[in-house]
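W.,

You were right to be curious about this one. When I first looked at the sequence I had no strong expectations either way, so I just let the prediction run and decided to look at it fresh. Below is the sequence, 211 residues in total, followed by the output.
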Amino acid sequence: MKETLPLGRARWCDIGEVVHLVADALATSAVGAWLVPDECRRHDVLRAVTRIWTEHALLFGEAYLLDDHSAAAVWFHRYGRIPPPTGYGERLAVACGDHLDRFLCLDGVLAAHRPTGPHNHLAFFAATPDRRGANRAGALLTTSHARMDHASLPAYTEATTLNERDLYTRHGYVAHEPFTLPDGSTAYPMWRSPGADRTPSPLTRRGAVGR
Protein backbone atom coordinates (compact mmCIF):
# COMPACT_ATOMS: atom_id res chain seq x y z
CA MET A 1 0.00 0.00 0.00
CA LYS A 2 1.34 3.40 -0.95
CA GLU A 3 1.69 5.98 1.74
CA THR A 4 -0.52 9.04 1.43
CA LEU A 5 1.81 11.97 1.12
CA PRO A 6 1.07 14.70 3.70
CA LEU A 7 1.98 17.50 1.33
CA GLY A 8 1.14 21.16 1.71
CA ARG A 9 1.76 24.18 -0.45
CA ALA A 10 4.06 26.35 1.63
CA ARG A 11 2.68 29.62 2.95
CA TRP A 12 4.49 32.65 4.29
CA CYS A 13 4.47 31.18 7.79
CA ASP A 14 6.28 28.07 6.49
CA ILE A 15 9.25 29.93 5.04
CA GLY A 16 11.37 29.31 8.13
CA GLU A 17 10.96 25.54 7.84
CA VAL A 18 11.72 25.54 4.12
CA VAL A 19 14.80 27.71 4.65
CA HIS A 20 16.01 25.44 7.45
CA LEU A 21 15.88 22.36 5.21
CA VAL A 22 17.45 23.98 2.17
CA ALA A 23 20.21 25.86 3.98
CA ASP A 24 21.19 22.86 6.09
CA ALA A 25 21.55 20.73 2.97
CA LEU A 26 23.52 23.45 1.19
CA ALA A 27 25.83 23.89 4.19
CA THR A 28 27.13 20.33 3.80
CA SER A 29 27.79 20.68 0.05
CA ALA A 30 31.00 21.65 -1.72
CA VAL A 31 29.46 24.81 -3.14
CA GLY A 32 28.15 25.81 0.29
CA ALA A 33 31.61 25.45 1.79
CA TRP A 34 33.04 27.57 -1.04
CA LEU A 35 30.39 30.27 -0.65
CA VAL A 36 31.06 30.61 3.09
CA PRO A 37 34.45 29.15 4.08
CA ASP A 38 33.90 30.20 7.70
CA GLU A 39 32.12 27.17 9.13
CA CYS A 40 30.96 29.13 12.18
CA ARG A 41 29.06 31.60 9.99
CA ARG A 42 28.07 29.27 7.16
CA HIS A 43 24.59 28.27 8.35
CA ASP A 44 23.56 31.80 9.25
CA VAL A 45 24.68 33.26 5.93
CA LEU A 46 23.13 30.49 3.85
CA ARG A 47 19.84 30.74 5.71
CA ALA A 48 19.70 34.49 5.18
CA VAL A 49 20.31 34.15 1.43
CA THR A 50 17.95 31.20 1.06
CA ARG A 51 15.21 33.20 2.79
CA ILE A 52 15.52 35.98 0.20
CA TRP A 53 14.93 33.55 -2.65
CA THR A 54 12.26 31.48 -0.91
CA GLU A 55 10.24 34.60 -0.19
CA HIS A 56 10.62 35.58 -3.84
CA ALA A 57 9.46 32.13 -4.96
CA LEU A 58 6.17 32.57 -3.12
CA LEU A 59 5.57 35.64 -5.29
CA PHE A 60 6.80 34.21 -8.62
CA GLY A 61 6.36 30.48 -8.14
CA GLU A 62 5.43 28.12 -5.34
CA ALA A 63 6.96 25.92 -2.67
CA TYR A 64 5.92 22.61 -1.15
CA LEU A 65 6.66 21.21 2.28
CA LEU A 66 5.89 17.82 3.75
CA ASP A 67 3.82 18.06 6.90
CA ASP A 68 6.56 16.41 8.93
CA HIS A 69 9.09 18.93 7.52
CA SER A 70 11.29 16.18 6.08
CA ALA A 71 11.46 17.57 2.53
CA ALA A 72 10.81 20.78 0.62
CA ALA A 73 10.74 21.93 -3.00
CA VAL A 74 10.94 25.54 -4.16
CA TRP A 75 9.86 26.38 -7.71
CA PHE A 76 9.96 29.48 -9.90
CA HIS A 77 7.50 29.83 -12.78
CA ARG A 78 9.82 31.19 -15.45
CA TYR A 79 7.12 31.90 -18.02
CA GLY A 80 8.94 35.13 -18.78
CA ARG A 81 11.60 37.28 -17.18
CA ILE A 82 11.40 37.32 -13.37
CA PRO A 83 12.58 40.53 -11.69
CA PRO A 84 15.14 40.24 -8.88
CA PRO A 85 13.88 40.36 -5.30
CA THR A 86 13.03 43.84 -4.07
CA GLY A 87 16.18 45.54 -2.82
CA TYR A 88 18.18 42.46 -3.80
CA GLY A 89 21.59 44.07 -3.94
CA GLU A 90 21.30 45.62 -0.50
CA ARG A 91 19.66 42.59 1.08
CA LEU A 92 22.28 40.25 -0.38
CA ALA A 93 25.11 42.45 0.82
CA VAL A 94 23.68 42.47 4.36
CA ALA A 95 23.14 38.69 4.30
CA CYS A 96 26.52 37.77 2.83
CA GLY A 97 28.87 40.33 4.30
CA ASP A 98 32.44 39.58 3.22
CA HIS A 99 31.24 36.69 1.06
CA LEU A 100 29.16 38.83 -1.31
CA ASP A 101 31.50 38.46 -4.30
CA ARG A 102 31.24 34.68 -4.13
CA PHE A 103 27.45 34.72 -4.16
CA LEU A 104 27.41 37.17 -7.07
CA CYS A 105 29.86 34.96 -8.96
CA LEU A 106 27.66 31.90 -8.45
CA ASP A 107 24.55 33.88 -9.46
CA GLY A 108 26.28 34.87 -12.69
CA VAL A 109 27.37 31.36 -13.62
CA LEU A 110 23.94 29.85 -12.98
CA ALA A 111 22.11 32.61 -14.82
CA ALA A 112 24.42 32.28 -17.82
CA HIS A 113 23.53 28.61 -18.24
CA ARG A 114 19.82 28.73 -17.41
CA PRO A 115 17.39 28.06 -20.30
CA THR A 116 15.74 31.19 -21.65
CA GLY A 117 12.43 29.71 -22.80
CA PRO A 118 9.34 29.23 -20.59
CA HIS A 119 9.79 26.52 -17.97
CA ASN A 120 9.27 25.68 -14.32
CA HIS A 121 12.53 25.99 -12.42
CA LEU A 122 13.18 23.75 -9.44
CA ALA A 123 15.51 26.14 -7.65
CA PHE A 124 15.80 24.30 -4.31
CA PHE A 125 15.05 20.72 -3.35
CA ALA A 126 16.10 19.32 0.01
CA ALA A 127 15.32 16.48 2.39
CA THR A 128 16.50 15.45 5.82
CA PRO A 129 19.59 13.23 5.58
CA ASP A 130 17.92 10.11 6.97
CA ARG A 131 16.35 7.21 5.16
CA ARG A 132 12.81 8.38 5.83
CA GLY A 133 13.54 11.81 4.45
CA ALA A 134 15.24 10.37 1.36
CA ASN A 135 12.34 8.03 0.62
CA ARG A 136 9.75 10.73 1.01
CA ALA A 137 11.76 13.18 -1.04
CA GLY A 138 11.03 11.05 -4.10
CA ALA A 139 7.33 11.16 -3.34
CA LEU A 140 7.46 14.94 -2.93
CA LEU A 141 9.24 15.25 -6.27
CA THR A 142 6.58 13.13 -7.97
CA THR A 143 3.73 15.14 -6.46
CA SER A 144 5.18 18.54 -7.22
CA HIS A 145 5.91 17.46 -10.81
CA ALA A 146 2.27 16.46 -11.22
CA ARG A 147 1.27 19.98 -10.21
CA MET A 148 3.88 21.62 -12.42
CA ASP A 149 2.70 19.55 -15.39
CA HIS A 150 -0.69 21.27 -15.26
CA ALA A 151 0.95 24.15 -17.11
CA SER A 152 2.27 21.75 -19.79
CA LEU A 153 5.72 23.28 -19.48
CA PRO A 154 9.08 21.56 -19.09
CA ALA A 155 11.02 21.63 -15.83
CA TYR A 156 14.65 22.51 -15.25
CA THR A 157 17.05 22.08 -12.37
CA GLU A 158 20.72 21.42 -11.66
CA ALA A 159 22.16 18.41 -9.88
CA THR A 160 25.46 18.93 -8.08
CA THR A 161 26.16 15.30 -7.16
CA LEU A 162 25.83 12.00 -8.99
CA ASN A 163 23.20 10.88 -6.49
CA GLU A 164 21.11 13.97 -7.25
CA ARG A 165 21.57 13.43 -10.97
CA ASP A 166 20.39 9.84 -10.67
CA LEU A 167 17.38 10.84 -8.54
CA TYR A 168 16.25 13.39 -11.12
CA THR A 169 16.85 10.90 -13.93
CA ARG A 170 14.49 8.44 -12.22
CA HIS A 171 11.87 11.19 -12.25
CA GLY A 172 12.01 11.82 -15.97
CA TYR A 173 14.83 14.34 -16.30
CA VAL A 174 17.51 14.11 -18.96
CA ALA A 175 21.03 15.18 -18.03
CA HIS A 176 22.87 17.48 -20.42
CA GLU A 177 26.48 18.51 -20.75
CA PRO A 178 27.84 19.42 -17.30
CA PHE A 179 29.47 22.71 -16.46
CA THR A 180 31.85 23.80 -13.72
CA LEU A 181 30.74 25.82 -10.72
CA PRO A 182 33.02 28.51 -9.22
CA ASP A 183 34.14 26.15 -6.45
CA GLY A 184 35.40 23.66 -9.05
CA SER A 185 32.61 21.14 -8.60
CA THR A 186 30.40 19.92 -11.42
CA ALA A 187 26.78 20.85 -12.09
CA TYR A 188 24.54 18.69 -14.26
CA PRO A 189 21.73 20.59 -15.99
CA MET A 190 18.56 18.48 -15.93
CA TRP A 191 15.61 18.94 -18.28
CA ARG A 192 12.23 17.24 -17.95
CA SER A 193 9.45 17.36 -20.54
CA PRO A 194 5.88 17.19 -19.25
CA GLY A 195 4.43 13.81 -20.15
CA ALA A 196 5.88 12.60 -23.45
CA ASP A 197 9.23 13.69 -24.85
CA ARG A 198 7.66 16.17 -27.22
CA THR A 199 9.38 19.28 -25.83
CA PRO A 200 12.89 19.66 -27.33
CA SER A 201 15.47 20.75 -24.82
CA PRO A 202 16.85 24.29 -25.31
CA LEU A 203 20.04 23.01 -23.74
CA THR A 204 20.54 20.72 -26.72
CA ARG A 205 19.68 23.47 -29.17
CA ARG A 206 22.04 25.97 -27.54
CA GLY A 207 24.88 23.53 -27.06
CA ALA A 208 25.37 24.90 -23.57
CA VAL A 209 23.91 24.01 -20.25
CA GLY A 210 23.22 25.26 -16.79
CA ARG A 211 21.40 28.03 -14.98
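Here's what jumped out at me. The first helix runs from residue 15 to 27. And, maybe more interesting for your project: The two ends are 38 Å apart (CA to CA).

Coffee later to discuss?

I.
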